[in-house]
Design a protein that fits this description.
Layout: E1 2-8, H1 12-23, E2 28-31, E3 44-46, E4 49-51, E5 58-59, H2 66-74, H3 76-79, E6 82-84, E7 91-95, E8 100-104, H4 108-118, H5 123-136, H6 162-165, H7 173-180, H8 195-207, E9 209-212, H9 215-230, E10 233-235, E11 240-246, E12 249-255, E13 260-268, H10 286-293, E14 300-308, E15 319-323, E16 342-346, E17 357-364, H11 381-401, E18 408-414, H12 416-423, E19 451-453, H13 462-478, H14 480-488
Parallel strand pairs: 1-2, 1-13, 2-10, 7-15, 13-19
Antiparallel strand pairs: 3-4, 5-9, 6-9, 7-8, 11-12, 12-13, 14-17, 14-18, 15-16, 16-17
Bound molecules: flavin-adenine dinucleotide.
Length: 491
């Protein structure tokens, strides 16, 4: 059996790419190394509680948003129930040193008003800054259907850093915190992140904010149902060990079991630093492979899953960002856990019902758990004890900084090793390869005929970035004008 396309990796970008290709009549197979599709976002249940893992909320899905058009085109609008986050404050920032809390409301004009109330002397500068983000956030191929794809120049990240841009607000360090806190959602600190990257990620949330009923698992189940309707196949526990090639280009894949599966196109959605080891020697230029291998990764994280004996009503349809001190956010993974910024969300966001589960995401480096990286150590009592100790320490930090979290019980702790196992990203990089200023950004098409890349490294992390990456990759195969033409009918 020969497939038209094999997609390696059943994450959000792999499932979306598969859907676009299968819809156009291609025979498609998705191969996933994990036992379940989309291991990063599908979440898990424990003791009757559902915990989201790699998806908590989405930006830019408002009724009139261009991202909503993509959702409609994919069929997700019909399959999913979205619910809006709290209009008066979808994200809350706490500065722990002063105990102050600031709410960020939904929508550019509401944000302008609210920030103007908090920082009246910065009102004019805030308006200018927000206008810039409002124009830039949807400046992405496939959100903008009119600009030629080549004109987006996605290959290198360049421009002013967010840190430089926020110098304008030095007199208001709390405002700098508010405007830089979403860098936690793309894993590049403001001194190395372009204002465009920040606008694309943070700006999508400024535009509109939604949760999905059923969380990450609901999203994955909807994509799987659409794939079944489109006739695509998904095989789990199928790790790809290498790509097969002929003189004409890519011809299929070989699994770790030795099984070979043939296909005309192969889409690789893994962390692009892993591509070189899948290829036979000599099929792509050494300079290109070296570039991929050396791409810089985002930091990893501890993810704490806990249950509160008190209701966590203050986190309903809202997340809490905690920064130790006011000022532009900076990578603090070298600091003790007690001095790091972190992010808290209710475990399974929903419009109603009881909230008692908590997810806390605390960026960290791989070195903290590297001693246990060998497979045989992962089930050792020593690693278990280390996880328990870190988890409990983090719960104490949460309770110290946030009185509403005084009564928490640790359910599970994911470490950089957990993230590495679930995504295969080197050192458990939370958002994979980062879009650092000056870094080469992989293109979906490669010089090997039939070989394409997709995934969060192509456009941006998150639901928005991975869906755009899937369109870019599928458009490289099906024709961008064909796909954009379909999208124009869905507006
Ligand atoms: C803790 C956390 C919280 C997040 N919160 C949000 C949020 O609230 N909102 C949001 O929009 N985004 C969020 N994100 C980001 C979002 O989850 C990611 O950007 C997205 O899931 C990346 O999808 P992907 O398809 O690019 O990569 P992945 O999901 O990593 O997909 C790659 C797949 O390839 C598989 N694979 C690897 N090697 C092989 C192989 N050799 N053979 C076969 N399969 C292989 C992996 O198992 C994996 O399933 C969060 C991420 C994390 C980690």
């Amino acid at each position: 059996m020969r497939y038209d396309a094999i997609i390696i990796g059943a994450g959000l970008s792999g499932l979306t790419s598969a859907l676009l290709l299968a819809r156009s009549g291609r025979r498609v197979l998705v191969l996933e190394q994990n036992a379940q599709p989309a291991p990063v976002v599908r979440g898990f249940s424990r003791g009757g509680l559902y915990f989201d893992t790699g998806f908590h909320y989405a930006g830019g899905l408002g009724e009139t948003s261009p991202f909503r058009t993509l959702f409609r085109h994919l069929g997700l609008e019909e399959k999913l129930q979205l619910f809006p986050f709290a209009e008066e404050g979808f994200d809350c920032l706490q500065i722990s040193s002063s105990g102050e809390r600031f709410l960020l409301p939904v929508g550019f004009s509401a944000i302008r008003e609210k920030l103007g109330e908090y920082f009246p002397q910065a009102r004019t500068a805030i308006a200018g800054y927000l206008d810039e983000i409002a124009t830039k956030w949807s400046n992405f191929p496939y959100l903008d259907l009119d600009t030629a794809i080549a004109d987006f120049a996605m290959e290198t990240v360049h421009g002013k850093s967010l840190h430089e841009r926020l110098q304008e607000f030095t007199a208001w360090p709390q405002l700098q915190s508010l405007l830089s806190m979403h860098s936690l959602h793309y894993g590049v600190s403001p001194d190395a992140a372009s204002t465009t990257l920040n606008a694309q990620v943070a700006g999508s949330y400024y535009h509109s904010v939604h949760g999905i009923v059923g969380g990450g698992r609901g999203l994955v189940d909807a994509l799987l149902a659409l794939l079944t309707e489109a006739g695509a196949e998904v095989r789990c526990r199928s790790e790809v060990a290498g790509l097969l090639t002929t003189a004409d280009g890519v011809s299929g894949v070989r699994l770790t079991t030795g099984e070979e599966i043939l296909a005309g196109n192969v889409v690789v959605t893994l962390n692009p630093t892993l591509l070189p080891q899948l290829l036979p020697p000599g099929v792509l230029r050494p300079a290109y492979l070296k570039r991929l291998k050396n791409l810089r990764q985002t930091p990893s994280a501890y993810i704490v899953f806990a249950q509160s004996r008190k209701s966590l009503e203050f986190l309903r349809r809202r997340n809490l960002f905690i920064q130790p001190r006011a000022g532009i956010f900076a990578d603090d993974t070298h600091r003790p856990l007690e001095e790091r910024a972190f992010y808290l969300a209710a475990a399974g966001q929903g419009p109603d019902g009881d909230i008692s589960g908590l997810v806390g995401i605390v960026p960290t480096g791989y070195a903290e758990v590297a001693a246990w990286e060998a497979d045989e150590l992962r089930h050792s009592a020593d690693y278990g004890a280390q996880k328990q100790q870190i988890g409990e320490r983090l719960l104490r930090i949460f309770a110290q900084q946030c009185p509403e979290l005084a009564d928490l019980e640790l359910i599970e702790l994911a470490t950089p090793l957990t993230l590495r196992d679930y995504s295969q990203a080197p050192e458990g990089a939370i958002y994979g390869v980062g879009r650092f200023i000056g870094q080469y950004n992989p293109h979906p098409a490669t010089r090997l005929p039939g070989l394409f890349l997709s995934g969060q490294a192509i456009a941006a992390p998150g639901l928005l970035g991975t869906v755009i990456a899937a369109y870019l990759t599928s458009g490289s195969i099906l024709g961008h004008e064909y796909l954009r033409g379909e999208l124009r009918t869905c507006r």
